[in-house]
Automatic annotation (TrEMBL):
CDD domains, sorted: DnaJ
Keyword Transmembrane helix: no
GO cellular component, one term: endoplasmic reticulum lumen
PANTHER family the UniProt entry points to: DNAJ HOMOLOG SUBFAMILY C MEMBER 7 (PTHR45188:SF2), DNAJ PROTEIN P58IPK HOMOLOG (PTHR45188)
The name this protein goes by in its record: J domain-containing protein
Localization, UniProt: Endoplasmic reticulum lumen
Pfam families found in the cross-reference section: DnaJ (PF00226), TPR_2 (PF07719)
Domain annotation J: ranges: 345-411
Main location, first listed in the record: endoplasmic reticulum
Placement of TPR repeats on the sequence: 58-91, 173-206
Domain of life assignment: Eukaryota
Length: 455
């Protein structure tokens, strides 16, 4: 960082306009000491008084210009440099610092433009590499840097930068606001609130501080209302509160991750699997390691019958927390559901529900057997045989109470045509012939054809 010159160049020590070099030396030593402890106003007052006493005191103009440059009071600084160069034409040090002033002034203007256009990285480069090198005491640049860091979501850096500003000026309202916002976005709401409150005690009508403070109060109120409604079992009200809280500040990721998770859990309880899965995915997009969101999304996918997705999520969760028995139990349920989803749905084949009685199942079977009997489907005999085989296999399971119970529990049932070819109602290939027997005979009395159907 460019340091303020605490000793005069050789050419400045040769004498003063009033012929009293000792007085000038004392003055500039006092100015240098004030600069060291950052008492810029006192240093400027001393220099202004010296210039008023002796308008030809070139060294005073030089020092004043340097201080003003460091404070980024560029227009005033440029006037002082020009006055110095009038008194000391061609002075290389003065010309160099005037050039640095113009670089810093241009860089600060550019940084503000980049902030407006949201090019945060480049804006920070201009401040760090130019403005704060030549104007290290520039409060405007320091505040702008904090704003750029906040916009770029470097919250810890904002806290650090504003800490330096507040150390010099504990009542700097902009620094209090920015520091509070950084703590807010880190979800350290208590500390954020204290910064807002301090700023509002200094200026109760500060619009940005008021907006930040009451925005935080409203967010916490909505969040608490959602949690209270969950505890009271008022789940639909909780859903609305969670959505309302999320809508208040979509950028508050550190807090919203918990809102998304809370919403997901409520939606799972309500059986709204699709919406729940979306909410948990939002939480995982913010924090991919959030175990509970992974588990809840697995549960949500079970509700939507996304069996493979549920297994994937719950398996990942089980790997992250292998000792959690609840996760293992949920994974077992998902794996069982996936396995069951891959077997044939005998109820669907017969066109009956899982709660159908034995009589209803038998009636459905008779109707379909008659419809798809190969002897009645000469023109599409191959399709009819395949359909008839499925119907027969379905009835073989669902028409038997014990086999049906095992099927409903997801247990394996051997030799029921479920694994590929073990069951053949036509008795082909030398296997045992399957005989269908309808109570009271089959209306119409057809049969034969070598299929051995005996109604």
């Amino acid at each position: 960082m460019h340091a303020f010159p605490v000793s005069l160049p050789l050419e400045f020590t040769l004498g003063c306009a009033d012929g009293k070099p000792g007085n000038a030396a004392e003055l500039f030593e006092s100015v240098s000491q004030n600069i060291k402890v950052k008492r810029y106003s006192e240093a400027l007052n001393d220099l202004n008084a010296a210039i008023e006493t002796d308008p030809a005191l070139s060294e005073a103009y030089f020092h004043r210009a340097s201080i003003l440059r460091q404070l980024c009071r560029y227009e005033e600084s440029e006037k002082s440099y020009k006055k110095f160069l009038e008194l000391k034409p061609g002075n290389s040090i003065g010309e160099k610092e005037l050039s640095q002033l113009r670089q810093a002034q241009s860089a600060l203007e550019t940084a503000f433009s980049l902030f407006d256009s949201r090019d945060h990285t480049k804006g920070l480069e201009y401040l760090d590499k130019v403005v704060l090198v030549f104007s290290p005491a520039c409060s405007k640049a320091k505040i702008l840097k904090a704003k750029l860091l906040l916009a770029a979501k470097y919250y810890s850096s904002v806290i650090s930068e504003t800490g330096f500003i507040l150390k010099e000026d504990e009542n700097n309202l902009e620094a209090l606001l920015l520091r509070g916002q950084a703590y807010y976005y880190l979800a350290d709401h208590d500390v954020a609130q204290r910064h807002y409150q301090k700023g509002l005690r200094l200026d109760p009508e500060h619009s940005e501080l008021k907006k930040a403070y009451f925005g935080l109060k409203n967010l916490l109120k909505k969040t608490k209302s959602a949690e209270d409604n969950v505890n009271k079992g008022k789940l639909r009200l909780a859903v609305e509160d969670y959505k309302g809280a999320l809508a208040l500040d979509p950028d508050h990721l550190a807090h919203n991750v918990h809102l998304h998770l809370g919403l997901c859990k409520v939606l799972v309880k309500l059986g709204r699997g699709k919406d729940a899965s979306i909410s948990c995915s939002e939480a995982l997009n913010i924090d991919g390691e959030l175990l509970e969101a992974l588990v809840q999304r697995g549960e949500a996918k079970l509700l939507t019958e996304d069996w493979e997705g549920a297994v994937d999520d719950l398996k990942s969760a089980a790997q992250k927390s292998p000792q959690d028995m609840n996760i293992r139990e949920a994974l077992m349920r998902a794996e069982k559901a996936l396995k069951m989803s891959k077997r044939k749905d005998w109820y669907k084949i017969l066109g009956v529900s899982k709660t159908s009685s034995v009589a209803e199942i038998k009636r459905a079977y008779k109707k379909l057997a008659l419809q798809w009997h190969p002897d009645k489907n000469v023109d599409n005999r191959e399709e009819a045989e395949a359909q008839f085989r499925e119907i027969a296999a379905a009835y073989e399971v669902l028409g038997d109470d014990e086999k049906r119970a095992k099927y409903d529990r997801g247990e394996d049932i051997e030799d029921m045509g479920m694994g590929g070819g073990g069951f053949n109602p036509f008795g082909g290939g030398g296997g045992q012939q399957f005989t269908f027997t309808f109570d009271g005979g089959f209306p119409g009395g057809f049969g034969g054809g070598g299929y051995g159907f005996n109604f």
